[in-house]
Write a structure and sequence with these properties.
The chain is of the alpha+beta class and 87 residues long. The protein has a single domain, classed as ACT domain (Alpha-Beta Plaits, 2-Layer Sandwich), CATH 3.30.70. It is 16% helix and 32% strand. A 4-stranded antiparallel sheet has the order 2-3-1-4, covered by helices on one side. Strand 2 and strand 3 form a beta hairpin. The longest helix is centred in the last third of the chain and has 14 residues. The radius of gyration is 14 Å and the shape is globular. It starts with 13 loop residues before the first strand and ends in an 11-residue tail after the last strand.
């Protein structure tokens, strides 16, 4: 059984939304590869483009290293990202 690896390759970066429990300070934003941080009550959302799965796993490892509980990871369609200008 052969798989064409081209069907799994992505030309553009994917946009992700990652939620963690707790409040991360803005100073962590640069450490998370440029993902935007926003805080809602006692959760922090990291959102933005990541180049590939390796970049996603890198961010998840950083979350693990901080000891912050991971709540969710979601890949977003481009039109649902917070960085897309309205209109």
């Amino acid at each position: 059984m052969e798989h064409n690896s081209a069907q799994f390759a992505s030309v553009e970066s994917e946009h992700y939304q990652i939620r963690v429990k707790g409040r991360l300070e803005r100073r962590w934003e640069q450490w998370f590869d440029g993902l935007q941080l926003s805080i809602d009550h006692e959760t922090t959302m990291l959102e933005g483009p990541l180049a590939d799965q390796a970049a996603l796993y890198g961010v998840l490892l950083k979350i693990r290293d901080l000891g912050v509980p991971l709540l969710s990871v979601q890949r977003l369609p481009l039109e649902e990202t917070i960085s897309t200008p309205p209109g």
